[in-house]
Amino acid sequence: MEYNFDELLNRRDTDSLKYGALQERWGRTDLLPLWVADMDFRTPDFIIDALRRRLQHEVLGYTMPHPDWRHSIIDWQWERHGWRVQEDEISFVPGIVRGIAFILQCFTAPGDRVLVMNPVYHPFFLTAQHNGRTVVYHTLQWGDIDTPAGPLHQYVIDFDRLDHDLEGVKVMVLSNPHNPGGRVWSPDELRRIALLAERHGTLVVSDEIHADLTLLPYRHTPYATVSETARQHSFTFSSPSKAFNTPGIVTSYCIVPNADLRRLYFDYLAASELNEGNMFAQLTCVQAYRHGADWLQQVKEYISANINYVIDYCRLHLPGIVAVRPQAGYLVWLDCRALGLSHDGLLHLFIDQAHLALNDGEIFGTGGKGFMRLNAAAPRSVIEEALKGLSTALPKGLSPTLPKREGE
Ligand SMILES: Cc1ncc(COP(=O)(O)O)c(C=O)c1O
């Protein structure tokens, strides 16, 4: 079946965060929203139809987890990512961010050090801060990496610096792949992280929510597969929610191979029934993982084409803005530093002049200064409209021949 991702869907007045929060967050509603990480595509029919079928039975009483839920995860992780997971290693969690907060509550005390990359998906450090933990920021560097598609200018880790930063750190939270940069960490990088974490006695949380959206020709590596060390000191979180556009239904889960860590964590969850799903959660996961391969391939092709379009458009028409090529996901990190604008000036350009609601790079940490994050999971015509608006709004007089290269 061929899916139509060009279709324009009206999401206003559906309690959608992306559209509904414009007034509250930007003080106006006349903006094109390309911010929070969900897709403006229809959630696939094999999920919607199953939910509809369930609702046709008009008793919404207590439910049990779908009998195929664990096995659908086991098969998916093996077939897609080459990771053999056991049934008892899996627990439902009521959202990945919450799952990470529970790790901090379970394995650290107030004041303990928690390491995150800078920049990174902001709830990683906000959750640690709000739980009274001390956040250690490891600032990512820019470098040229070798990829199957050729050299790419992307985020890299300074391992000497990471060794230093991990001193006394109880938990490191890793976005694997990385949000907002879209970096897919290589097996070698993950192995080196594991060695350092082990040396410092640090537990590693690997958030793999964007893994299923790893774009060709790149390949996702589950952190827990790179070494026995990594397997033994890690908690991996995932969910079909990003890849299949179901974040409104909480479908997240955690995989913990180490029996001692697992017992502590799963007991903690069970004590407050935090491991209980709901009528729709496990059903959605099963439908996505059992029936989603074809849809996923098509949506990734569409997203890849959108990303190519954004990169080319920036190169040709937006002097001073470089779109960093993501290796996974649909979030495009726009490097606007060459515009030479202040933070307020950059927001003024995007919001007041281009009428766009993107994520302000600074929310992801100091490393996001001068960047904006654009969500490219929208029909092409919407992306075209957004970039055209930006091109019209750009200050005139900037040299259109600013030296730049893809991903810089
Ligand atoms: C890296 C990362 N982790 C977690 C989440 C959210 O997961 P959940 O809705 O399960 O808390 C997001 C959403 O954008 C994300 O980008």
Structure described in brief:
The protein has 408 residues and is an alpha/beta fold. The protein has 14 helices and 15 strands. Residues 37, 95-97, 121, 175, 179, 207, 209, 239, 241, 247, 252 line the site of pyridoxal-5'-phosphate (PLP).
Q: Secondary-structure blueprint of this entry?
A:
Blueprint: H1 17-20, H2 22-26, E1 32-33, H3 45-56, H4 69-81, E2 90-92, H5 96-107, E3 113-118, H6 123-130, E4 134-139, E5 141-145, E6 152-156, H7 159-165, E7 169-175, H8 187-200, E8 203-207, H9 228-232, E9 234-238, E10 253-255, H10 259-271, H11 281-291, H12 293-317, E11 322-324, E12 331-335, H13 343-353, E13 356-357, E14 359-360, E15 371-375, H14 380-393
Parallel strand pairs: 1-13, 3-4, 3-7, 7-8, 8-9
Antiparallel strand pairs: 2-10, 5-6, 9-10, 11-12, 12-15, 14-15
Helix pairs in contact: 3-11, 4-11, 5-6, 5-10, 12-14
Bound molecules: pyridoxal-5'-phosphate.
- Distinct ligand kinds: pyridoxal-5'-phosphate
Would you tell me the overall average pLDDT? 96
CATH superfamily of the largest domain: Type I PLP-dependent aspartate aminotransferase-like (Major domain)
Topology-level CATH name of the largest domain: Aspartate Aminotransferase, domain 2
CATH 2nd-level architecture of the largest domain: 3-Layer(aba) Sandwich
Cα(first) to Cα(last) distance is: 38 Å
Strand content: 15-25%
Number of strands: 15
Rg over CA atoms, rounded to whole Å, is: 21 Å
What order do the SSEs take from the amino end to the carboxyl end, as H and E? HHEHHEHEHEEEHEHEHEEHHHEEHEEEH
Number of helices: 14
Q: Tell me, briefly, the overall form.
A: globular
| Top CATH class of the largest domain | Alpha Beta
